[in-house]
User: What shape does this take?
Amino acid sequence: MPKKVLETMLAKDNFTKWLGIVVDEYKEGYCKLHYTIREEMLNGHSIVHGGIVFSGADSAFAFACNSHGRVSVALDVHISFIDAALPGDVLTVEAKEVHTGHKISFYDVTTKNQNGKIVAMFKGTAYRTSKSVC
Assistant: This one.
């Protein structure tokens, strides 16, 4: 089931494609992906724009919370930016399910650079609908 869910979501997700995201591992309640920081992803300080880091974490969160096959949407998310990322950095994002209930699920998402340094910590709460992803 998770593989079909991921394929269905990726087929419709143009923003994730634009980010250049590659999903490395995927199973129920878990997603690990990576992407490379490009020049057009930088802010006025020549470091990665926070929205890019947020978006990578949000994608991993979305894939993980929908992995059970039920359409799940964000209720609440929080991100803490720990360190900057630069052009050429490869960011790896790992979303781990903390708890899944009937209607609500919780996830911890960590973004690291190619040296293993933490770039951001993201926490997400998702609402689980009764609708099927695929």
Summary: The first strand starts at residue 22 and ends at 27. Residues 50-66 form the longest helix (17 residues).
